[in-house]
Amino acid sequence: MKDDFLVFDHVTKRFGALTAVNDVSLTVNRGEFFSLLGPSGCGKTTLLRMLGGFERPDSGRIYLEGKDITDLPPNRRRVHTVFQNYALFPTMTIWDNIAFSLKLAHMDGKEIEEKVEEILEMIQMSDQAWKYPSQLSGGQKQRVAIARALVDRPQVLLLDEPLAALDLKLRQHMLLELDTIHDQVGITFLYVTHDQGEAMSLSDRIAVINRGKIEQLDGPAKIYEAPASRFVASFIGDTNFISGEIVSVEGDYCFIKTDGFAQIKAFNDKNLATGQRVGLSVRPEKIRVTLSPPPPEKGAAINVFPSTVKDIVYQGVYTKYWLDANGVRISALKPHSRFLLDQEAITWNDKVFVWWHPDDGYMVEEDDV
User: Fold this and answer.
1) CA-CA distance, 71 to 74, in Å (whole number)?
2) What is the pLDDT of residues 191-243, one digit of tens each?
3) Taking a C-beta distance cutoff of 8 angstroms, is the pair 21, 46 a contact?
4) What's the CA gap between 80 and 227, in Å, rounded?
5) What is the pTM of this model?
6) For residue 48, which of 5, 28, 222, 290 sits 20 to 30 Å off, Cα-Cα?
């Protein structure tokens, strides 16, 4: 444990009858951009607050660079927090907001000046140092809040839904800035969000949390392509979930008798046996929608189902279809890889075929369904 940078060791936190964090253990690496992702009330902010010293766990310990910090007050931890509401001092200039913690630490005036100027340059706000928070945009305020938290180089920077108050375009811009700042300072970032897009864009690893427990801890690609449970598959992006029972196993593949579909072939990565109930997750972008059945070289008669188009939404780079396949609702994405008007149009109530490769579905066991 002493070789690990940040460790939550069997941490539990209750608020009355509610168990907000339930026996969570995880390790965060030095310099990592690590996200805690989950719906509201899942326990992710409670974990952050325990690391910051604002809550104390009922059981378990928290270690930072091998030191037990569980009982240390917030001011004795080199852990700083950036909040959603910025928490800037309205009567202080940007320069003074950033310098505040350095002055509290009685740092030499020349050193304070150097550190503040360096961090202002990093966030590209040197020319606005003497403005007040009320004169800044939301994105600028967030940059100042991050700069103030980073100026004395903490061991860990905690970010609690820092972009939630920003509009979509500004949020997308700030994602790039956060990534750049993290690369520049090399400090461990622990990021809390309910927004899967933010977590997937920024993180080295993600802990997906549900009801106080970690459902999966992996890199973004692994979480998206190989979800550990139905909750993870559903929470991380859109997916189609099809339930059924394994009726035969052939090598690395199995055949699933489904509730509504015909038989489906799927890659049996979990080595499940005949007779087991499973759920199959198939991402919308993995599903093809065509007016004619696929040619033999594309796997004709395997995972090919007649369907009816029920709704269509054009979204620029792709079109999203909702289809009825023998009473089962399916969503599919069709990317626009060439000029849309050159393609054969698919429209409402068309009779079409939906199909996917057996490798493109991911199974979870019945207990997770």
Assistant:
1) 9
2) 999 999 999 999 999 999 999 999 999 999 999 999 999 999 999 989 999 99
3) yes
4) 32
5) 0.90
6) 222
Residues 6 or more apart from 314 whose CB is under 8 A from it? none
Q: Which domains are seen in the chain, by residue range?
A: 6-233 (3.40.50.300), 238-368 (2.40.50.100)
Tokens of 153: 């180089």
Question: Around 54, how many Cα atoms within 13 Å sit in the side-chain half-sphere?
Answer: 10
Q: 317-326 as b/e, with b when 16 or more CB fall inside 10 Å? A: ebbbbebebe
> Can you read off the two tokens belonging to residue 339?
């000029």
Q: What would the two tokens of residue 82 be?
A: 């950036």
Q: Which of 143, 224, 205 is nearest to 176 (CA)?
A: 143
Q: Which residue has the tokens 């037990």?
A: 68
Task: Tell which phi-psi region holds residue 322, choosing left (phi > 0), alpha (psi between -120 and 50) or beta.
Answer: beta
Distance (Å) of CA 116 to CA 65, 107, 145, 149, 225:
27, 12, 13, 11, 43
pLDDT in tens, 58-95: 999 999 999 999 999 998 999 999 987 888 999 999 99
> Kind of pairing, strands 288-290 and 277-282?
unpaired
* Angle value at C-alpha 166, between 31 and 172, nearest 5 degrees: 60
Cα separation, 78 vs 187, whole angstroms: 11
